[in-house]
Amino acid sequence: MSLSTTILLVDDQNLLREALALRLSQEPGFSIVATATDADAAVREAAMHKPDIVLMDIDMPGRCCFDAARAIAEAGSGTAILFVSAFCHDRYIEEALAVGAAGYLTKGESPQTLIAAIHAARSGSAYYSPEVAARIVADGAGLRLSQPANARVSTLTPRELEILRYIARGMSRKEIARTRQVSEKTVVNHTTNLMNKLSIHDRVDLARYAIREGLATA
Asked: pTM score, two decimals?
């Protein structure tokens, strides 16, 4: 283990991001190697710097943060992902667990708690805010929600869930394709699969369903 814990900060709110960077850079043993304003930039910066920790806001416009987390994990650098959010939705928690996050903290936590979470992630452990931890149980299969989210949504693949999020935001087929860097045909195929799995056959109703499920804010 290196003497310094390298950190990439990802948040679209400039004031919060820079204030947090300043605070963490003052902590002994922490080094802020880069900051990013969105998930796409996070993937690029993570590939360039290979940080020990990515501290990433969930609630950002553009590419889904969970998609970015998967891309970072697939790069094989061993980077640990800590998610931060103002919200504590079961759907967010479920997806954070699915991508192997090293923690999920709410934005009401103190700087000392955040520092403790970074240390835990660096040592290979995980840290969850109390209200998040209260919704998680551990069994032979690992960590999971104590009360599983909607069963129909749980049948969706990670890619389908990402597309559903973008539909919930009101993004067009072309915008989704550009954001995900895939063809429009791929988006159409995912949308068709979504409608079949969810028994919803109208794109507007699909968006309404996703909003009701709390999928529109990340």
From this structure: 0.71
